[in-house]
Design goal:
This protein has 540 residues and is α+β, with helices and mostly antiparallel strands. It is built from 18 helices and 13 strands. It has three domains: 142 residues, no CATH class; 126 residues, no CATH class; 172 residues, no CATH class.
Amino acid sequence: MAFFLRGFPKIANRPPKRQPRQQPSPGTSNAGSAKAAGAAEEPGGASLAERTGWLKTLLAHCSDVVYHTFTAGKNTPCLLVYIEGAVDRNDLQQSVLKVILGDRFVQGEESLAGNLFDCKMLPADRQKTLLTMKDALQDILEGSAVLLLDQESRMMSFGLSSYIKRQIDEPNSETVIRGPREAFVESIQDNLSMLRKRLRTHNFKCVEQIIGTKTRTRVITVYMEDVCSPALVDEAARRLADIEIDSVMGSSYLEEFIEDNPYSPFPQLQYTERPDVVAAALLEGRIAVIVEGTPIVIMAPTTLFMMMQSPEDYYQRFWAGSWIRWIRYVFLFVSLLLPSFYIAVTTFHPETIPERMLITIASSREVVPFSAFVEALIMEVFFEALREAATRIPKSVGQAVSIIGALIIGTAAVQAGIASAAMVIIVSLTGIASFIIPHYDLGLSFRLLRFPIMILAGGFGLVGIACAMILIYIHLTELKSFGIPYLSPVVPMVPKDMKDIFVRAPWWTMITRPKFTSSRNLHRQKPNGRKWANPAEEGD
């Protein structure tokens, strides 16, 4: 079956010169201009005019690029190039231009270049020397300011990026009553710092890669060196290195490239916007991939049971976390099978329904002109449309629309004879059950599988449901995430690793890490963590 198969302040009364906005000549398209610019050869000399012309050719029709020309030292022509809005102009004025135009370079005996490249105007990580124009162009596009001198092949880059970024806020989708209330943001450095704050060890490693020929997006893989398997790190690096795409706008772009089975309806990578969830995953021997420009971090490998866990499970008492986890598993099957089961028993197996309930269902369906399958299909499609509409409209009215809309549509459907009251209850329970699944993509997978199971139930009854469940089980047992079985540690069964699967065992009993995710340093803590509670053992 088919369903099994991301102009700053004036300086010396001399305003910055901007490139005039050029209009393409008649008969010349922008694509043609870009192609011609891309074919321009890098100038080999140190002439400032040649290099300026080369930059203006490649950056044609870029009105936000600023070309600031001035003289410094002993009348040495200089050019400062940057993108307006990407560079902090006040910092550029005070830290760079004020120093270059100062008396130090005017009165010096050496040339401007001789003194300038030995001068540290910014910290070492924000100031560097460039040797090629291609490197200079790339630094400009990444938000740096580049200084060029006449008859000097070397250039200087100043990391003064000032891109607007969002402040750290509470997570939107993974809220907890107890626990941290920080969420990742679009800044990759801020995200790394939040992880560093939680993992203060030299074993926390991060490897950076650049993906995207047009966007040149920074992608950082993080892991714990003393816990994570080296084979897993190498495999992740290999899969990411093989990606050749022009743009990466989010972590979901990479997810489809690196997952084991892209045609499976089930997600094989877990994602989160919470730093504490990522830190906990790294301590279990997993890896995480942080993508610049998105607050969503993906983690691998993952299993079905990991996506049934919520951060709230670990911030409350273990018995409460275990109870809520059992409720999730029960309602997982409710979300998947309840409409199909109703269709099967009312169409093929009415003898399984208690007599009084059967009479009630039959009387409510007396005015409905459709079969149970068509009735369920209509109501499920209506509910999915209502759910989608609630996510697209403004938040201030979204909740009201979803609740009131469901009530109005359900009541109207019953009064119009389109659906029975029992079917409205079935669809409502199914919708509520789908919201209990913590991982959105996993819940979406079961919502999609619900429809083919309904078709099988409408055609073959309980036998069709049984066949569908067998096919799903076979698919799940064959599915892997970075080589890890998707149903680990249940299939294959590893009893020692099941303390955090169906129940959330007390912390002092989870002495070792899961073996299926970590092949190194399995011990999480010392045994007898509550030795103080037994005075006899403490005396020994």
